[in-house]
């Protein structure tokens, strides 16, 4: 069990020094759900999925969750408000992306999280990949402001940046810039492919997470992928613990240039699908 109590002359562990508010409980959290108890639980949950976290990474991810739940009292960031469910539905769910990202945890690369909302999956992935430079994109100002505050509070602002814009616009300023583009609960797979295509470097990957994917949505994405320069490179299925559902993680590699000029105008991918 992690402890931040004094230990004679020994210095406090690093995470106690950088997280002075770790005794704070978000509204609705019981003492049982404090950082002290959620961290070992998270460590245990993710290890069942072959994901290894350090003590510091675990603490940072739980602290992010605390900040999200606290901010959720004033702006709508998530419907998942039970901390123990959120460990699975936000943090584990985000970390499952790593199972399909074809890069080592200490590699330096650029990641863009499209439609990051409260920072999922971008912040847990930014914590896991300690040398990655991560851009978190969202078009809603209030969410961007909240996520910027989280990043600052977590001490990650040197590597994790918030881009408050639509991804179609970001594609003009950050063309072919990213090794990995992620998206969770953002849009249909075909729309995600269209958004990601101009943003990715050659051989970069789009990694998207879905609950149960409908056959129509999957077939349409597979049909248009070659037009957008992609081929499917990985597909993984997971059952979440506690009967909290299942996940499909789909990975598409950008193998060649798009055959159509991208990005199309704002809103076209969604409202005039290919
Ligand atoms: C349902 S939320 C999902 C948030 C987060 N990825 C998660 O899984 O918790 C979708 C988010 O995508 C953002 N979004 C939708 N379309 C976008 C676009 N074209 N560019 C940037 N952000 C977008 C919305 O503002 C919203 O925050």
Summary of the model, kept short:
With 274 residues, the chain is of the alpha/beta class. It has helices at 14-18, 35-47, 55-71, 83-95, 122-128, 141-153, 167-173, 189-196, 215-224, 268-271; strands at residues 110-114, 133-138, 160-164, 178-184, 200-210, 230-239, 246-254. Its main location: cytoplasm.
Helix/sheet category: alpha/beta
Q: What series of H and E elements makes up the topology?
A: HHHHEHEHEHEHEHEEH
The spatial strand order of the largest sheet comes to 3-2-1-4-5-7-6
Contiguous helical run count: 10
Helix coverage percent: 25-40%
**Number of beta strands:** 7
The number of domains is: 1
Unreliable segments (pLDDT under 50, ≥5 consecutive)?
Answer: 1-24
Q: What is the class in the CATH system?
A: Alpha Beta
Strand-residue proportion: 15-25%
Report on this structure.
- This protein has one domain: Vaccinia Virus protein VP39 (Rossmann fold), CATH 3.40.50.
- By secondary structure, the protein is α/β, with parallel strands linked by helices.
- Residues 1-24 have low confidence and may be disordered.
- It has helices spanning 14-18, 35-47, 55-71, 83-95, 122-128, 141-153, 167-173, 189-196, 215-224, 268-271; strands spanning 110-114, 133-138, 160-164, 178-184, 200-210, 230-239, 246-254.
- It is globular, with a radius of gyration of 19 Å.
- Strands 3-2-1-4-5-7-6 form a seven-stranded mixed β-sheet, with helices on both faces.
- S-adenosylmethionine binds next to β2 and α7.
- Its EC number is 2.1.1.-.
């Amino acid at each position: 069990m992690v402890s931040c109590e004094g230990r004679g002359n020994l210095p406090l562990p690093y995470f106690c020094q950088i997280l002075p508010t770790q005794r704070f409980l978000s509204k609705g959290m019981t003492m049982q759900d404090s950082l002290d108890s959620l961290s070992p639980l998270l460590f245990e949950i993710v290890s069942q999925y072959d994901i290894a976290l350090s003590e510091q990474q675990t603490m940072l991810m739980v602290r992010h969750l605390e900040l999200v739940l606290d901010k959720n009292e004033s702006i709508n960031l998530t419907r998942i408000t039970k901390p123990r469910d959120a460990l699975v539905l936000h943090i584990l769910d985000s970390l499952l992306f790593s199972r399909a990202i074809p890069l080592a945890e200490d590699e330096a690369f650029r990641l863009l999280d499209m439609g990051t909302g409260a920072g999922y999956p971008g912040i847990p992935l930014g914590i896991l990949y300690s040398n990655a430079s991560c851009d978190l994109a969202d078009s809603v100002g209030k969410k961007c402001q909240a996520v910027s505050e989280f990043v600052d509070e977590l001490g990650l602002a040197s590597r994790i940046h918030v881009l408050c814009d639509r991804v179609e616009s970001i594609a003009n300023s950050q063309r072919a810039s990213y090794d990995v583009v992620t998206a969770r609960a953002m849009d249909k797979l075909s729309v995600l492919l269209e958004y990601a295509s101009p943003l990715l470097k050659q051989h970069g990957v789009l990694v998207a997470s879905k609950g149960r994917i409908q056959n129509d949505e999957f077939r349409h994405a597979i049909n248009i992928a070659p037009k957008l320069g992609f081929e499917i490179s990985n597909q993984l299925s997971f059952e979440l613990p506690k009967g909290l559902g299942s996940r499909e993680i789909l990975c598409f590699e950008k193998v060649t240039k798009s055959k159509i000029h991208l990005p199309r105008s704002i809103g076209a991918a969604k409202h005039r699908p290919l």
